[in-house]
Task: structure prediction
Amino acid sequence: MKILFIGMGYVGTTMAVVLANAGHEVTGLDVDNDKISSLQKGELYFHEPGLQTMLMTQLQNKNLTFTSDPKEAVETNDVLFITVGTPSQQDGNADLTYVKKAAQMIGSFINKTKTVIVKSTVPIGSTEKIGEWIHEASQGRFAVNMVMNPEFLREGSAVQDALNPDRIVIGSTNTAGLDDMKTIYKSWDCPIVQTTTRTAEMIKYSSNAFLATKISFMNEIARLCDQLQVNVRDVSKGVGLDHRIGSAFLHAGLGYGGSCFPKDVKELLWTADAYQNPLQILKEVETVNQTQPDYFLGKVREKYPSLAGKKVTLLGLAFKPDTDDTRESVSFPIMKQLTDEKAQVIVHDPIVQLSPSWLAQGVIQHSDPYEAVKGADVIIICTNWPQYEELDWKKVTGLVRHRFIFDGRNMLDAQEMKRLNFYYTGIGYS
Ligand code: UGA
Result:
């Protein structure tokens, strides 16, 4: 079976490489020639642990090729995955422009009946619409077997998630499409949820919305813990060990970022409002997340009512560890707030490079964390990179001007920091 992935973002690229690794003949297509030529050379243009090596192996095995020629790509493949982006519009509704373009491209070049699998996260009802767009563009020359197959990959552990999923969701009532899905995932051994395309779309949104809910719930509890001198890290542990609740996504801190949770929560809220069925809980989830950085900065202001002229070291720019993705990373609104208040901001991240526009505003980036903390009045941790846990904090005491740590990810050992005479606080944890 010859498989095409349309859209070489992190989901498309990861899944293309992983399916090639499973022995399929896979092609990756993108309109961005730079992405394609870098992938053809075996160079991954984003950071994802384990993917680079697998990409090289599959290119050498000739299981995997990349192209920017849509006609040949559509004509010569049997199964077409759509993995293009669905960004948020101003009002929160997902923008289906790229999905529509992919559908029209399939429709123009289709030369026989094919299976089209939507892996992009799309609003409920979209897979049906995509089928119609293909049908219009092809003027109904060939039938398409439509399937919705949501992805559950976390950036930073996408390869492991793709190889060992908790479940595979297959939304389709088309027999030929379902048969193709069985062939594609024949080497996977996990529960399969077979359902309609609409239900598969809802499973994806509900999964992300529920994980976001767990995070915001714990973040709200963390604020209360601050007032009651309760340790939220222990609360998360004690609560999470109940197998009905589960320990994942109960880690309190600065909240969720990235290209998925904020966007998918917005889209689900938009859909619910459009159907006059507002999702009250999810609205609050979003509000807690949006107000968490201000709540955290309030703690800094308690110690430093004015940050003007203060040297603030901000550790971490990525929206989470093990990725170079900064989309919706909380580090940036925090950095903006600090620069607006005329603080002197020094940043460090193990892999993310600040854009020139930030540097032009006077923000300084150091590649060595010890350089970054030299002379600091305040250290703020925004991303829970393991490197920060492993820092020699005793050495840091000799480098900073004042010993203040505001840990937005509750990642350091509070007792140890206090032993080193730091003023240390996290969120619901100090
Ligand atoms: C998320 C989902 O976890 C994936 O299952 C899904 O496929 C993906 O979105 C998507 O829709 O494409 P991702 O955004 O890569 O994956 O990252 P997560 O590990 O889920 O983290 C999201 C945010 O939540 C990060 O900012 C992280 O720091 C934060 N988080 C996570 C917490 O604040 N606390 C936690 O306990 C867990």
The chain has a mean pLDDT of 97. The chain is about 45% helix and 15% strand.
